[in-house]
């Protein structure tokens, strides 16, 4: 077989909050293999709950980076067992939870450079990290956010430069906190990666650069000239910070061939290309290939609303990020921390661990819930920035817990959908007759939930036919697209197709319009993060 006629495949990873997923696609982008490691269940020795650990200080949330390394060892073995022929993989890429930071020790790059193919990664990288990684669920850096905003000339100026006012989970404030409160850790660190560039480093055999798209979730990158902003760097660390971060690179870049470790251990081709990894939401935007007027809705540990943008328009709420592909120069993102984990917690409380039972309960209620509403925030919310809490309202407006479990089930989901719509519109998302919601992420398989979104948004809801996880699919597709552009070889892979799964009922406005101002009143009663 000549090299041109050999089967070509592409590998994508998603280092998400609760699991690591891998997927192999063919030249026509159809899914050939999949593997999945769930952190809490498959790696109980790390004692995570929902993939994270709570820190000692209020709002602190971290994850041990070695957990992700060990998960990679496991997922690779699963792919071996699934019969993946690694010699056909032309390129690989990945997605990862956004904003988290990985703090590499001084000798870590040397370790990455000289990995023995006879051993697992996690045994060889056991001492490569100086500390646990603060992750996106952390809300402990409010003081650092205010200091950063002040240092660059105020919140609007920071948003103009970096695409966002300062947010607790963003990497700049997280670095500032480390520099301020754990100086020895800061100084013992040779390089700081995002979770995405850390994961990429494991394949590259050296510390991978941060990509523009995920890099724009740090409050440090100037999204106009794609350089680190000096004032922001100065506010978050010392003179060594720029070299700790390294220069950022375009997201659609080949960073090098795969490390010899994979060639010798798994039989990868020595010229298999590693394409820059990026954030999960950035990757989802690439995987969904949203058209004008379409809004992406990612229903995962966090729920996010995603929209492609032509330019770096400043967002009043939410974030403007650099886009992940040449076709999507910028993107808007709105992140709700209370997504699937909150849905699951209340499902478990109300009916136990079964979505079927929960949906049966939901069916005993009517749309609009006879006026009963609830806002359930199990963790501090990002949009809007408020502390955890729970508020109910009954039809007359009095704050009272819904009368039965079934009302609570509907109040939970309707409250979430109302929040997604209201805050998306506040950010400037326009919903009209041409709009579509394209849902992805674990909860996008739940038709009852999607029907509520269709009614509340007055928009048909679609899902992608190829895969329910656009971030994961997007990782493999980006590997294929970047490889194809570089190699000058056209692939037969078509644009992913979408199918409608829920359309709004005609009376949606009558039911849900009056609930919007009520939602605003209720959310205003939560205590704000300073
Ligand atoms: C987005 C965000 C989360 C994480 C985890 O800004 O913080 O969506 O990317 O999925």
Keywords:
21 helices; seven-stranded mixed beta sheet; Nucleotidyltransferase, domain 5; binds D-xylulose; alpha+beta; 2 domains; 530 residues
Could you describe the 3D structure shown?
With 530 residues, this protein is an alpha+beta fold. It has two domains: 9-276, 2-Layer Sandwich (Nucleotidyltransferase, domain 5), CATH 3.30.420; 287-464 and 497-530, ATPase, nucleotide binding domain (Nucleotidyltransferase, domain 5). Helix content is 37%, strand content 22%. α7 packs parallel to α11 (230-236). The mean pLDDT is 95. The site of D-xylulose has 16 residues, from α14 and β18.
Bound molecules: D-xylulose
**Can you tell me the CATH topology of the largest domain?**
Nucleotidyltransferase, domain 5
Radius of gyration: 22 Å
The total tally of domains equals 2
**β-sheet strand percentage:** 15-25%
Question: TL;DR?
Answer:
This protein has 530 residues and is α+β, with helices and mostly antiparallel strands. The strands form six sheets. Strands 1, 2, 3, 6, 12, 13 and 14 form a seven-stranded mixed sheet that branches. Strands 17-18-16-15-21-22-23 form a seven-stranded mixed sheet. A three-stranded antiparallel sheet has the order 4-5-8, with no helix packed on it.
């Amino acid at each position: 077989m000549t090299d041109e006629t050999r089967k070509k495949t592409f590998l994508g990873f998603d280092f998400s909050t609760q699991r690591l997923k891998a997927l192999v696609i063919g030249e026509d982008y159809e899914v050939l293999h999949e593997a999945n490691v769930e952190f809490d269940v498959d790696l109980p020795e790390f004692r995570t709950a929902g993939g994270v650990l709570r820190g000692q200080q209020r709002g602190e949330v971290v994850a041990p980076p070695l957990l992700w390394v060990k998960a990679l060892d496991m997922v690779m073995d699963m792919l071996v067992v699934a019969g993946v022929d690694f010699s056909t993989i032309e390129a690989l890429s990945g997605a990862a939870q956004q904003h988290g930071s990985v703090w590499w020790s001084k000798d870590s790059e040397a370790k990455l450079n000289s990995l023995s193919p006879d051993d697992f990664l996690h045994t060889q990288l056991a001492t490569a990290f100086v500390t646990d990684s603060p992750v996106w669920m952390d809300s402990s850096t409010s003081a650092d956010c205010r200091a950063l905003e002040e240092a660059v000339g105020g919140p609007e100026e920071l948003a103009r430069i970096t695409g966002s006012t300062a947010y607790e989970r963003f990497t700049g404030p997280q670095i500032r906190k480390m520099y301020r409160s754990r100086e020895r850790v800061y100084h013992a660190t040779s390089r700081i990666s995002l979770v995405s560039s850390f994961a990429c480093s494991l394949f590259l055999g050296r510390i991978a650069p941060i990509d523009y798209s995920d890099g724009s979730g740090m409050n440090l990158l100037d999204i106009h000239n794609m350089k680190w902003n000096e004032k922001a760097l100065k506010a978050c660390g010392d003179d060594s910070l720029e070299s700790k971060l390294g220069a950022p690179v375009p997201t659609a870049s080949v960073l090098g061939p795969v490390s010899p470790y994979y060639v010798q251990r798994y039989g990868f081709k020595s010229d298999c290309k590693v394409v820059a990894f990026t954030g999960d939401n950035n990757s989802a935007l690439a995987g969904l290939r949203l058209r004008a007027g379409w809004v992406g809705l990612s229903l995962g540990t966090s729920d996010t609303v995603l929209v492609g943008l032509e330019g770096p328009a400043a967002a009043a709420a939410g974030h403007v990020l650099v886009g992940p592909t040449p076709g999507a120069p910028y993107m808007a993102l709105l992140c709700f921390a209370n997504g699937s984990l909150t849905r699951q917690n209340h499902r478990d409380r109300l009916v136990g661990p079964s979505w079927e039972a929960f949906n049966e309960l939901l069916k005993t209620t009517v749309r609009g819930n006879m006026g009963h509403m609830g806002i359930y925030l199990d963790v501090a919310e990002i949009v809007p920035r408020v502390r955890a809490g729970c508020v109910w309202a009954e039809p007359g407006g009095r704050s009272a817990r819904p009368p039965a479990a079934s009302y609570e089930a509907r109040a939970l989901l309707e409250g979430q959908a109302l929040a997604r719509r209201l805050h998306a519109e506040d950010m400037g998302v326009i919903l009209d007759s041409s709009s579509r919601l394209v849902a992805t992420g674990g909860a996008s398989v739940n038709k009852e939930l999607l029907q509520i979104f269709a009614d509340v948004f007055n928009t048909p809801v679609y899902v992608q036919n190829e895969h329910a996880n656009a971030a994961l699919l997007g990782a493999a597709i980006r590997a294929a697209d970047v490889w194809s552009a570089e190699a000058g070889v056209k692939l037969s892979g078509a644009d992913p197709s979408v199918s409608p799964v829920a359309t709004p009922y005609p009376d949606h406005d009558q039911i849900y319009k009056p609930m919007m101002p009520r939602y605003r009143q209720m959310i205003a009663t939560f205590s704000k993060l300073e």
